[in-house]
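Project standup — Tuesday

K.O.: blocked on the structure for the chain from last sprint. Re-posting the sequence here as requested.
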Amino acid sequence: KSQAWQVAASVAFFMLAGPLLVIVNKRILRDNGLQMPAFVSALGIIFTANFTRLMVALGQVQVKKSEGRMFRRLLPVGLCSAGTFMFGNMSYIYLDAGFIQMLKAGTPALLLFMLVAFKIEGISTS
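H.V.: unblocked you, prediction finished:
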């Protein structure tokens, strides 16, 4: 029963976190006039890093050590993620939150088209 409760709580938190972040970002960037999306994105990343360190310190999460070449592999991913956060937050300055969510809903289709265009995936007809 304890594990089922943890799974249900995790799913509920996950479902609430996304819409809550949309509302908070909109309030910070548009309603309060703080037009610094890179700063808001950096705060989110800093909070995530600190929370992760806290969970590791409390023994709730274990981190495996990796070889030295991982930095070269992870740097492009980190830079692209930071850009995604920043440009995503910039959109709250110029667009309505509902319209932004509609644009985000098209992401899976865009991803599929890009994967096919770069010949990473193919569309099967069967």
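K.O.: great, moving the ticket to review. The first helix runs from residue 2 to 31. The chain has five helices and no strands.
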